[in-house]
Queue: 2 jobs
Job 1
Amino acid sequence: MDYSVARRRMVEQQIAARGIVDQRVLEVMATVPRHIFVEVGLQGHAYGDASLPIGKKQTISQPYMVAAMTAALELQGGERVLEIGTGSGYQTAVLSKLVKRVYSIERIAVLAGRARKILDQLQLSNINIKIGDGTIGWVDQAPFAGILVAAGSPDVPAKYLDQLDVGGKLVMPVGDQEQQILMRITRHKDGRFEREQLMGCRFVPLIGEQGWQSESLV
Ligand code: SAH
């Protein structure tokens, strides 16, 4: 099955039409094969305007959200970025084509393993994946020019601010377990952290030392 037409349509109708103008992001999303990051039975839905289940109660983010978060990092190429919540590995693949190196942390080992396999198949060789609690960041590799967090947290973990390079941007959903606001935090030269609210969103919870203790029982 050739999904290239569906992929182009996804970029035009869901992403460019909603105001994403970063050409590099649009081009990469028109090439990364999103369908191979979902289970075979869902491949026909991979280019639809929605998130999809990937097992273990987790989801692959909606294409527009992947594009919006990636564009919000304002990447030029050459950066080292930290991603929290590898999940399917799709967002990791998109980032890997836009920067020098991606460091990605996933707490669920089977998801990390599956993502690693697909990313290897695609011969994306500039990705380090670690299994563990991403709420504490990746101290050995810091600082990062960009940090993208694909799970929602009640607050911004302080370690992310510590691990953000001067001029770097952190994009993450902040709120309760039902809904969040996508925040962008920029670390300026004078030491100031600028906070912007980009849009409402709904992500699975960031679970760990600096996030939620567990998934809500409600
Ligand atoms: N970008 C991924 C989104 C996956 S959903 C994709 O598009 O496929 C969010 C992921 O964050 C889940 O896989 C979840 O297991 C992971 N996660 C939640 N808390 C985490 C933590 N503290 N550290 C690392 N990963 C975490």
Job 2
Amino acid sequence: MTSSTAPTFDSPALALQGIEHAFGDHRVVKGIDLVINPGEVMCLLGPSGCGKTTLLRIAAGLEAVQTGRVCLDGEEIAGPGRTHRPPEKRSVGLAFQESALFPHLSVLDNVTFGLNHLPRRERAPRAQSLLEQLGMADHASRYPHMLSGGQQQRVALARALAPRPNLMLLDEPFSSLDARLRDQIRDDTLHVLKHLGTATLLVTHDPEEAMFMADRIALMRDGQIVQTGTPYELYCLPVDPFVVTFFGEVNELEGVVKNGQIETSIGTLKAEWLEDDTAVQVMIRPEALRLKALNLPIGEHRESHVIMAKLLGRASLVHLCAHAQNGEEAHLHARVPGVYLPAPGQPVEIDLDHSQVFIFPRRGASPR
Ligand code: ATP
């Protein structure tokens, strides 16, 4: 692609190529390539400070590119020392955690504000339609100070979407809302984005939010993308331990490969793809542990047994003492759907859903 490339049907809505960025001598983005296809919702996920917002600001044009290129619809719009198209000329819609509305304008006027390019008669219907899709049609004549934080955020999203940008850039737009409201606004926003077919880059540090919203997720750590893929790929085919732990609590065991197998406190695991004597980290999601109560007296501690069980709401969390045949013990957590509250001391048999068990060679460990 060159700076004069004409948009084609197959052009990505956004392509970030070789982006690096530093504040002084602090390198915060370290060589990122990312493509968002037309109509795709991409979530940029990662812990605080890993560079997500900086990358979004570079895509928006709020931060000048230092190294790399930004292309929108196949056209280069920013590169170091060359092009830098300003944000207002990029056909991007922006919404942030606190998206300030114009206080002196009504809700309707806030949403029509960016529609000066349209004939006057088309502006209000376009704005009304978006307000309706975001559940705010009845509030069109109100002023921002008459709205709750969640309602203001809905209006901010409608305002950003009204000019029908080719790309929406959303930075933690739901994080200031309480949990119930957040779920509703997320759901409404997802439906509007999909209805309009707007390509979207959404920054979040919340893995559940990313899985709810995204067609694909790019998981970042320390200025780099660790894995890009569908929510299924990141959850079920993680490339390293960081990806596994980012999506929730895991039970961690250590072991050594012998004859293509690893002996653990919950049985033998296959690992034929690893060389013998490789030291490994075994990561088991709590939902991978399936429990069967054994018909043995409570307190029969030669078997694996329950330490305690807690109801969390949709699932129960069972703390277990797992016994290996060699006498080793491990404290594990099992997450069981619904209400499952066995008594402390209850002997159990532990079965594993191997699709939620991940084995990685231990970093820095020398073969034993
Ligand atoms: P969060 O989820 O907490 O918002 P983030 O992943 O979005 O974090 P960034 O906001 O991109 O991370 O910040 C990445 C790093 O760059 C942080 O260490 C931050 O302190 C630093 N940083 C961001 N903006 C600036 C700036 N304008 N000047 C100096 N340092 C900055």
